[in-house]
Amino acid sequence: LAQDKVDSFALSIFESIRSLPEYTTDDVSTDVFIKSSEWAEKVRELSSNVVSEAKSLDELIGSLPGIDMTEAKQLNKLNELSEETECLNVKLKEKVKEAEDRAALADDALDTIY
């Protein structure tokens, strides 16, 4: 999710820069004032988009669990969660086996009826 946000941020910047009108004053027939004010407006829009995306990314990073923990504490927490997941996985396998055994018993009981 965070990588998607970073990618989106980079793409947004790239697309915004790409959409900027060409800014040249070489053409004498072009009204430089209008052209420069259009360009300035696009730059303001780009700046606004970049700031908005950056704030959104900061909020996402701030909402991540463990952001206030040291790296060592984060690793300990990951290890704890990994052990908990392993334990739950074992219990799940036991329950699946139990359900399969009961289903087999039910099938046997139904076979004797028919």
Task: Provide a descriptive summary of the structure in words.
- Helix 1 runs antiparallel to helix 2 (32-63).
- With 114 residues, the protein is mostly helical.
- The two termini are 54 Å apart.
- The protein is elongated and about 95 Å long.
- The chain has helices spanning 2-19, 32-63, 71-113.
- It contains 3 helices and no strands.
- The longest helix is centred in the last third of the chain and has 43 residues, at 71-113.
Short description:
The protein is an all-alpha fold and 114 residues long. Helices cover 82% and strands 0% of the residues. The chain is built from 3 helices and no strands.
Kindly list the characteristics that best describe this protein.
114 residues; mainly alpha; elongated
End-to-end span in angstroms? 54 Å
**What string gives the helices and strands in order?**
HHH
Overall shape: it is elongated
Classify the secondary structure makeup into a structural class: mainly alpha
Helix content bin: over 70%
Describe the main β-sheet briefly: none
Number of strands: 0
> What is the alpha-carbon Rg in Å?
30 Å
What fraction of the residues are assigned to beta strands by DSSP? under 5%
What's the rounded overall pLDDT mean? 81
Q: What is the helix tally?
A: 3
- The low-pLDDT segments are none
